[in-house]
Amino acid sequence: MDSADTKLMKEAVTEGRKSVAYLTSEYGRAGDTFIRREVNELRRIGIRVDTYSIRRSKDQAISEDISQAQDSTTYILEQPSWVLFAAFLAAAVVMPLRVVSAFRTAMRTRSAGMRSLVWHLFYIVEASFLARSLQSKGITHIHNHIAENSATVAMLACEIGGLTYSMTVHGPHEFYVASQIAFPEKLARAKFVACISHFCKSQCMAWSSPADWDHFHLVRCALDDAYFASSTPVPRSHIRFLSVGRLCPEKGFVLMVRAVAELKKMGVSVSLTIVGDGPSRRDIEEEINRHQLSKSVQLVGWKSNDEVRSMLCKSAVFVLPSFAEGLPVVIMEAFASGCAVIATRIAGIPELVFDGKNGWIVEPGDVRSLTKAMQEASTTSSSELLAMGMAGRRKVQESHNITHEVAVLASLLRQ
Predict the structure, then answer these.
(1) 184 upstream amide cis, omega within 30 of 0
(2) CATH number for the domain including 110?
(3) Mean pLDDT, to the nearest integer, of 213-237?
(4) Dihedral angle, C-alpha 311, 319, 358, 2, nearest 10 °
(5) pTM attached to this predicted model
(6) How confident is the model at residue 305 (pLDDT cuts 50, 70, 90)?
(7) Could you tell me whether strands 164-169 and 193-195 are parallel, antiparallel, or unpaired per DSSP bridges?
């Protein structure tokens, strides 16, 4: 770490106390560990963070940290209807011009159709409540994760309450529906935009005016020291494959099952465990049954952070065959645990996974490429796989350290 980094971290800790609201669509989801780490680190260095969410996640509170995050979060749609509409009426009476301006913004930035019209009217009501709540606490800045619906509420709340907002952009969905979610306007209005990878930053630049590029900053998702300390890599006695993520089409889990089926045809026996749940579970189960792979592939549902960490430490290879991604934190966790990684050549992944050095990069949507990588991994010695994992661990420690990344974010929040 160079002297500039050290100076930045000292400034982040020693500057005056700052209060900020964190807003997401569903705070406290099982898969959003990285946001909770970020919030905890901001609080550790002296920034007050109040967490808000549009709605409560349907994910079960499978660990104490998720339960604590949910218990301390204000869920806007759990407020009584009269409270939400009272906040809107109060804003309309006290700040009529701001409410009219927010209404115009909502109508201008919505997509076509009656459904979008109705939703954006609700967003104005939600934004009125959020603005009123923050004003009562003396909070003047909102930081949003995921630049979709919750970012719309943040943008409107700032217009109503005279606040400012910033965003962390992850991708990839924002880039696919940019024109429908007013992504360019959100980028332009934000005080700053934190981008999780160079690829992410390039996509924000593609959807914005060059005049806005200077307030786009690289702030990577990261792991804390406690994660590294509790994930000491050791040689594996067996080569087990592990995958973790929400079971949705873009994660490519069905393709991974097909790769295991191809390996079976080749006489290569592998053990694969998939952690997670979601809308694609039935499709994955059907694929497992179709190829008679119930002894080779196990679906185990969501697990707590500690359970996932333990499973990573017992697995030699982590596989994520995604079709679309940002830069998955679970890859960082896999490297920290000493796993070699097989992942696809998309988005920010090649900024972390290097073919032949800390894992394998495969072509997205290509079962042959994935099968070949899994076959090579299955015939690689445990010591070689661990050496790959250790190379990945060093890369994560170098580029995805929570102390440094949150110091960058804190410096931006305090400006």
Answers:
(1) no
(2) 3.40.50.2000
(3) 90
(4) -70
(5) 0.90
(6) confident
(7) parallel
Which DSSP helix (H) or strand (E) runs through 96?
helix 96-109
HSE toward the beta carbon, residue 19, CA cutoff 13 A? 9
Length of the chain, in residues: 415
Which letter, b or e, does each residue of 161-174 get, where b requires 16 or more Cβ atoms within 10 Å of its Cβ?
bebbbbbbbbbbeb
- CA-CA distance, 348 to 407, in Å (whole number)? 22
Distance CA 281, CA 229 (A): 33
Domain containing 37 equals 3-222+401-414
What is residue 310's predicted lDDT score, i.e. its pLDDT? Answer: 94
Total structural domains in the chain? Answer: 2
CA atoms of 321 and 343, how far apart (whole Å): 5
pLDDT per residue as tens digits for the range 368-399: 999 999 999 999 999 999 999 999 999 999 99
Q: Which of 1, 3, 2, 16 is nearest to 411 (CA)?
A: 16
Looking at the fold, whether 138 and 265 belong to one and the same domain comes out as no
| Sign of CA pseudo-dihedral 158, 164, 170, 173 | positive
Q: Identify which of 300, 78, 301 has the alpha carbon closest to the alpha carbon of residue 70.
A: 78
List the strands of the sheet with 241-244, edge to edge. Answer: 297-299, 272-275, 241-244, 317-320, 340-344, 359-362
* Cα 321 from Cα 345, distance rounded (Å): 9
User: How far, CA to CA in Å, does 382 sit from each of 54, 87, 185, 256?
Assistant: 46, 60, 50, 22
| Rounded Cα–Cα distance for residues 412 and 415 (Å) | 5
